[in-house]
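Office hours follow-up: a student asked to see two folded examples consecutively, so here they are.
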Amino acid sequence: MTALDAKAHENRRQALYWRLLARLFDPEEHASLEAVSVAVVDALGLPAALLDPSVSVDALVQRFPELAADFDGLLSSAEATADGVPSAPGSGAEDGREQVRRAALVSKLLLNVFAAKPGNVTAAQLSEWQRDAGWLRRALGDDGGAGACGAPGAGDAGAGATGPGTGGTGRGVGTGNGLRPVLAEIEGDLVRRMQLREVLSDNRLARRLSPSMSLIEQLLRDKANLSGVALANAKALIRRFVDEVAEVLRTQVRQSSAGTIDRSVPPKRVYRNLDLERTIWKNLTNWSPEDERLYVDRLFYKHTAKRTTPAKMIVVVDQSGSMVDSMVNCTILASIFAGLPKVDVHLVAYDTRALDLTPWVHDPFEVLLRTTLGGGTDGTAAMALARPKVTDPRNTVVVWISDFYDNRALMTDFESLHRSGVKLIPVGSVNSSGQGMVDGWFRDRLKSLGTPVISGHIRKLVVELKTFLA
């Protein structure tokens, strides 16, 4: 291939990518780029529908079945680079032509999945996007074991497109942890702009929804208006999300530091507690050079004593809409700690009124179904329920989850709890991003009290609780 031919192929490929960028940022057609792209696609022997974002990949493959093999593993082959352009050796004319062909196919996938869809979204449009996202995953060599995107903080689990859009071959760069959150965000936006009840009433569409925090918030807000099939599907999505997040949090509870050993309790003198290194070190003076033996006249044991009195954990959750992320995470976390031995967990939710959810603390799914998002906030109502539960202050931790835009009289109650010996852990935000607004007045006063507000990844709260409970 001559340098002139190589330059021509490069120009055609760049034209396709410039058109892709233009359409991603502006849905309006740019006449010159469209004309050049049509000419390039026609010269490749590809259908003009490849350039039409209103035509789904499913529809394209149904009309032109031979293209299915081209999309399959398109971005996962060993010779493909990140932008879909092969870097295989060789300089023949076919290599340059194949690069242009690959660029046209990649552009189709990216445009259909990532181009903005303005206005209201129908159930059919959501279903079509899910299938296109499935084709993108297939092009990336995803094995189809999970959906187009996963629940935040729940790894890659989820449910995405089925049928032609799932499954995959090739070694693949895979979607990894980078693409899936992006697809989840796009899907969440589409769901927000459509009639969610319409989707939930369709078992096929509901099964393909990927449970995410934004979707769960919508379900919790709208659950009173759901019934029949829609309500059953909503509960199934909430249950899936709870189970996925719970598995992640259980791992974090197991892996986090469990605090310091209680050295006030003498170590139990059994073989498994024997501190061999310390025993040898302390008895070195008894070494006999003649016998070449170490005579031990004192044994040393490791301290392994743990709390014997059951600890009480009181979790108070602000169920206003702004706290939904932290509320879901901490409700699930409370259920995990409730399953540990010697931990007595109580759960209270509040807005302007308070509700004792302790009977359901072992099942966060049931807790979430009983919450009512939104409304005002008055923590003094929750304090009236929580305070009588404190029977042994120095053996009690109160986890208060709120943005603290609240009744300032609540600060007096916090000070009283702290003076009594209760371990107070105020929580402003515990999520994957660590972002959250906290009222500055409460934040400053809680910090001065020696109980700063925790904001950030939920691992921070896990470590705090395990340190207290150890």
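And the second, which I mentioned at the end of office hours:
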Amino acid sequence: MDQIKIGKFIADCRKEKKITQMQLAEKLGITDKAVSKWERGIALPDSSIMLKLCEILGITVNDLLSGEVVSMDNYNKELENNLIEMVRQKEEADKRLLSLEIVLGIIAVLPLIAAAIITGIVHMEEWKAALLIILSLLPLLIATPFAIKIEQKAGYYECKKCGHRHVPQYSSVFGAMHMGRTRYMKCPNCGKWSWQKKVLRKEK
């Protein structure tokens, strides 16, 4: 999807409706800075407000994602292309998030490794060594909830029993036994427990 084209289209439609950026933002419950970012092609509208935005501007979601009013002759083709592009962009975003999770984990573990090396080499009182280890655990404790949130949101988990792919609740991921990115969870589709692996696509 061409963000610059979509941004210009949003701006043109807004001006046709004689609505300012501030007025559009107020109708959508967001800031005018967000609208400005759309129109400059820096960001795309969030999916949660796309329908309302299109209703205000008098266009379809397909028009919005195409950056122009789509004729009925090309409607289905453009819709298919837009859906494929949205799926591709989500997969790319999920890959980046999962890479970030790895980086976050490495950064969080480094202080603990350093503390273990220091306490092994440098002679110090037991309470000081214990305090150093406890302090080195703090980054890991802080990073863990964020890493699990990424693990939950990015991509899908695939049930080994029925093949259903889903995004589980945070609590399910948090409390699940795991080996890497494979977690032992209950499938919301078949209700069976299995080791569910992380995948990026919704469909096989």
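Two things to take away from it. The mean pLDDT is 90. The helical segments are 3-16, 21-28, 32-39, 47-57, 61-66, 75-121, 126-153, 170-174.
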